[in-house]
Write a structure and sequence with these properties.
Blueprint (H helix, E strand, L loop, with lengths): L1 H21 L6 H23 L4 H23 L6 H21 L2
Family: Belongs to the drug/metabolite transporter (DMT) superfamily. Small multidrug resistance (SMR) (TC 2.A.7.1) family.
Subcellular location: Cell membrane
InterPro entries: EmrE-like, Small_drug/metabolite_transptr, Small_multidrug_res
Length: 107
């Protein structure tokens, strides 16, 4: 259940961040509502995952790392942003860092 909550928190954060780009500086009311509701849902789900004894360092690393990587890929695939070799390498380093943190948390 904990990991499902964290996955949902990541998905809603990625949705909200994607909507942030589409909101035109929060000028578009529909996308702005998606931003606000998405972030509210994301933080609520993350808080519930932490309540179920998930370590905050591990949870936040996964939440922010996966979210960052997903947004970079979504930006390249759907929002006309570039994905250079350096960006791809950075995404790989983020994922590697999350994996190391996760493995180091297991006792």
């Amino acid at each position: 259940m904990t990991w499902l909550l964290l996955a949902a928190a990541i998905a809603t954060e990625v949705l909200a961040t994607s909507a942030l780009k589409l909101s035109d500086g929060l000028a578009h009311k529909g996308w702005t509502a998606v931003v606000v509701l998405g972030y509210l849902a994301s933080f609520t789900l993350l808080a519930q995952a932490l309540k179920l004894k998930l370590e905050v360092g591990i949870a936040y690393a996964i939440w922010s790392g996966v979210g960052t990587a997903a947004i970079a890929l979504i930006g390249a695939a759907f929002l006309g942003e570039t994905l250079t070799l350096a960006k791809a390498g950075g995404i790989a380093l983020i994922i590697a860092g999350v994996v190391v943190l996760n493995l180091s948390g297991a006792h």
